[in-house]
Amino acid sequence: MSAxxxxxxxxxxxxxxxxxxxxxxxxxxxxxxxxxxxxxxxxARLMAHTTRPRINGGQKVTSSTQILNLILTLKSQATDRIExxxxxxxxxxxxxxxxxxAGYAYxxxxxxxxxxxxxxxxxxxxxxxxxxxxxxxxxxCQQKVNYLGVAGYLTELYQRDVVKEYRETLTSVRENxxxxxxAAQKINRGxxxxxxx
Length: 197
What we know:
With about 200 residues, the protein is mainly alpha-helical. It is about 70% helix and about 5% strand. The chain has a domain at about 85-165. The chain is extended. The two termini are about 30 Å apart.
């Protein structure tokens, strides 16, 4: 597929209302392109007649994207609580100290992972000696400070808190998801039945 064909597909899928003006299409292949495109149209069909979780002070969501954003926001709340927890901060400080003692100046394990990913691989595409040494030291330091134990415990603790706090909202999210799956299955059955004729 050429670059111009890819742009056209993106414009049709996303619609003229969600595409930069200079590449937006109002018609393609002799057919009209809707404001929300194929993705928006299918989302509207799947969201029709479903339970709508409430966000932002009681507003009902209008799209599956808003539901995904809600879930990501709740996950982020749990992560923020973990990162503010004194036990997590202490463990991270100990990990950074362990790494520093081995000559690595990273504040977080994610920083070490990012650095390793940016290292040039060997000619055969494998991990370089520098990358293997960094990964090995990271693993030793994580084990020394019980990174997985502390992070796992706190993740479960704070995710449970968020689930308790937003139980009603998450129940309606689950209902919405189940309803959208059922709607998609019905649409697919209809398409198969139509193809069988």
